[in-house]
């Protein structure tokens, strides 16, 4: 039977919570856990990535100043406590003492300063994380274990951003001496597990850090295997060679196979991940907003959710889940109306049989099936759609950012901050990596205006405007918010399925 684990409390700002959050675990015992992940991120540097699959591994290697667990609460990480100064334009962090990086290097305020100056400097400009942290104007060391982040303007989402991705603290001496390329492939952090080996496209192996500040892990080893083919991942789970298969690997159609195996179970968690087919708004027929609206009207999303996704998802109207700050329950979907779609296409001068290409991730079997159904819906209104699958790293690192897609392209987004800003700024602001086609002054101003606001009600109002404006311009065909579906061997104990897929496995054991 499918198990739903919710625990979805709202993230809160935790000021002066000195050392209360993460209790020490017992010394680790011999034991190995093997995890199947569908994608090799290609680099383990926190500033190089936007990928959920990076975080599924790297949450065990790196720590941030703050931490957010499966309950979505913000608690102390490498900072024991923090306080707001200067009306929110300065955050002062008191750091944990006695913490060391895996190479023996001391963690201190200098490491924090190095991390954020690197992120906001020339090196960070090469990756996708920098724009999430540009509210930071400077980093000031007060003493070895006190550091201030001076902000250009208050940033209401910064404490959450410090808990993941680009905000992970890195070792200055190691990177300076060994170089950036070495760090990409041989990561060093302060986390519960230490990197031991990495074979691109094959696996990454970690071992327990017995000196971890939160207590030694209960497992001695972790191995993440990169298994792109869902059927292979499920077969390895059934054979006992994999203990956990993480999202978005498992197709809906394979859930009964796992549920029928007495050794296995499914954990299904409502999460932030949303899927859409975004439009090339610059070229071809989809440059015309009438055509984009027609395409949305041509697709029956409710039927897709119920028949293909077996209810393991919910329809979306804007490119965010209902858990996202900025979600507007009053925003109305463009209705399924094939006759209306035909009328709009005729008004736009689109002739019957006009071709259109849909680009998707080749290893996403669920989206492959969904795209086939969408192709059928489009054929009913006179559009001939072809589906072009790409290897995930190719579509995410080359095809989309370089503006080389077809008329429509798959965008899967985790929205890991549970704040619409994190998604909307990346998708809609001019010049961003995930927005290769669209430039809109009104949208840019809306996005920029909400970032410094500490008034939650005013921020929420503007974010709702962003969602409504994106829907009005039909920037994407919004599809669904999927549950995070984990397949797990019952011999694994102590695992709590995180809605954001950020696995921290120091408290897990394997019988």
Distance between the termini: 22 Å
Mean pLDDT: 92
Computed structural class:
alpha+beta
The number of helical elements comes to 15
Extract low-pLDDT stretches: 1-29
Rg on CA atoms, Å = 23 Å
Shape: globular
How can the largest sheet be summarized? Answer: 12 strands, mixed
Quaternary form = single chain
Strand content: 15-25%
The share of residues in helices is: 25-40%
Total number of strands = 20
Protein name: Peptide/nickel transport system substrate-binding protein
Pfam families: SBP_bac_5
Signal peptide: 1-29
Main location: periplasm
Outline the structure in words:
This protein is an alpha+beta fold and 511 residues long. It is 27% helix and 24% strand. It contains 15 helices and 20 strands. Strands 1, 2, 9, 10, 11, 12, 13, 14, 15, 16, 17 and 18 form a twelve-stranded mixed β-sheet that branches. Strands 5-6-8-7 form a four-stranded antiparallel β-sheet, covered by helices on one side. Strand 5 and strand 6 form a beta hairpin. The longest helix has 18 residues, at 456-473. It is globular. Residues 1-29 form the signal peptide.
List the helices and strands and how they pair.
Blueprint: E1 3-4, E2 32-37, H1 52-58, E3 66-68, E4 74-76, E5 79-85, E6 90-95, H2 109-119, E7 136-143, E8 146-151, H3 158-161, H4 172-178, H5 180-185, E9 193-199, E10 203-208, E11 221-226, H6 230-239, E12 244-245, H7 255-259, E13 264-279, H8 289-298, H9 301-308, E14 313-315, H10 338-347, E15 354-361, H11 365-379, E16 383-390, H12 392-399, E17 408-413, H13 420-428, H14 441-450, H15 456-473, E18 476-489, E19 492-493, E20 509-510
Helix pairs in contact: 8-10, 13-14, 13-15, 14-15
């Amino acid at each position: 039977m499918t198990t739903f684990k919710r625990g979805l409390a709202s993230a809160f700002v935790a000021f002066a919570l000195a050392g209360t959050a993460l209790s020490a675990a017992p010394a680790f015992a011999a034991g190995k856990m093997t995890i199947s992940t569908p994608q090799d991120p290609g680099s383990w540097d926190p500033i190089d990535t936007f990928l959920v699959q990076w975080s599924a591994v790297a949450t065990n290697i790196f720590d941030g100043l703050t931490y957010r667990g499966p309950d979505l609460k913000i608690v102390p990480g490498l900072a024991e406590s923090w306080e707001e100064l200067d009306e929110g334009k300065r955050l002062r962090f008191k750091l944990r003492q006695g913490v060391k990086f895996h190479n023996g290097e001391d963690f201190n305020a200098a490491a924090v300063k190095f991390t954020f100056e690197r992120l906001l400097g020339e090196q960070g400009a090469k990756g996708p994380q920098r724009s999430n942290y540009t509210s930071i104007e400077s980093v000031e060391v007060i003493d070895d274990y006190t550091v201030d982040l001076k902000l250009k303007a208050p940033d209401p989402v910064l404490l959450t951003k410090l808990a993941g991705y680009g905000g992970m603290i890195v070792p200055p001496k190691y990177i300076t001496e060994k170089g950036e390329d070495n760090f990409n492939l041989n990561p060093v952090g302060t986390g519960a597990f230490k990197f031991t080996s990495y074979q691109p496209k094959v696996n990454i192996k970690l071992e327990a850090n017995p000196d971890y500040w939160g207590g030694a892990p209960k497992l001695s080893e972790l191995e993440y295997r990169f298994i792109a083919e869902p059927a292979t991942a499920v077969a390895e789970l059934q054979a006992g060679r994999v203990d956990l298969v993480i999202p978005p690997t498992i197709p809906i159609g394979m859930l009964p196979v796992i549920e029928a195996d007495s050794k296995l179970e499914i954990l299904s968690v409502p999460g932030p991940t949303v899927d859409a087919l975004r439009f090339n708004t610059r070229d071809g027929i989809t440059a015309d907003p009438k055509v984009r609206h027609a395409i949305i009207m041509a697709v029956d999303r409710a039927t897709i959710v119920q028949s293909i996704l077996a209810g393991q998802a919910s329809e979306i109207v804007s490119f965010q889940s209902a858990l996202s700050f900025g979600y507007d329950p009053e925003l109305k979907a463009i209705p399924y109306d094939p006759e209306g779609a035909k009328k709009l296409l005729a008004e736009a001068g689109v002739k019957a049989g006009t071709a259109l290409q849909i680009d998707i991730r080749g290893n996403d079997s669920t989206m492959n099936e969904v795209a086939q159904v969408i192709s059928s819906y489009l054929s009913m209104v006179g559009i001939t759609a072809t589906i072009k699958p790409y290897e995930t790293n190719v579509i995410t690192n080359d095809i989309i950012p370089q503006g080389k897609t077809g008329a429509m392209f798959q965008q899967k987004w985790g929205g890991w901050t549970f704040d619409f800003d994190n998604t909307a700024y990346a998708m809609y602001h001019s010049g961003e990596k995930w927005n290769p086609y669209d430039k809109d002054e009104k949208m840019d101003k809306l996005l920029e205006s909400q970032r410094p606001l500490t008034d939650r009600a005013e921020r929420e109002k503007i974010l709702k405007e962003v969602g409504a404006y994106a829907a009005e311009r039909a920037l994407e065909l919004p599809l669904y918010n999927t549950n995070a579906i984990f397949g797990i061997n019952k011999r694994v104990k102590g695992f709590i399925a995180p809605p954001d897929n950020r696995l921290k496995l120091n408290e897990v054991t394997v019988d």
